[in-house]
Amino acid sequence: MNQKIFALGLGALLLATNFPVHAQKEPTTHRMGILHAGMPPDVNTDVFIEDLRQLGYSDGKNMAIEHRFAEGKSDRLPELAKKLVQVKVNAMFGIGAPAGFALKQATNTIPIVFVTTTDPVGMGIVGSLAHPGGNITGITLQASDLWPKRLELLKEVFRSFQRSPCCGTRAMAVWHSKREQPRRLPVRWV
Known about the structure:
Mean pLDDT: 77
Structural class: alpha/beta
Largest sheet: 5 strands, parallel
Number of helices: 6
Strand content: 15-25%
Radius of gyration: 28 Å
Number of strands: 7
Number of domains: 2
CATH superfamily of the largest domain: Response regulator
Distance between the termini: 105 Å
CATH topology of the largest domain: Rossmann fold
Strand order of the largest sheet: 2-1-3-4-5
CATH class of the largest domain: Alpha Beta
């Protein structure tokens, strides 16, 4: 009888400690591509990466960041965008309208986020601000549709207002002048 109790106790002990063993998953490494129209270092990108670090994503641990810099040569952007697609990133970020446009041309499957100060609809990056469509979305700081009205208001308040400085790249100035050509602005750009 003692042997039966001992055998039952031993069997219960073995069954109680026999937990299923699962293989441990390898930590997932997310690959992010960042396409810059400008040159390194980029302070805005550094802040973005610091924010990711605070959320638990760290370059070299659970995330790999692929930077590509066009160094002000916009003709290099399409090639650099294709290289980001080739390294199989999980998401891509375009800093500047030309970078966002190059990423859009490079893929229609990898998620793209852009940041630009120009008009992404007018530049052909997205279909509309409300519904960008496809695999692309982003942030714009643009107010280009408001500039003509702002200039008209300045002209009304200050009758002698004749010229306005415009800061930006030469390409932006050409694009704005072509876009606003049908509408006569109340002042002259300098």
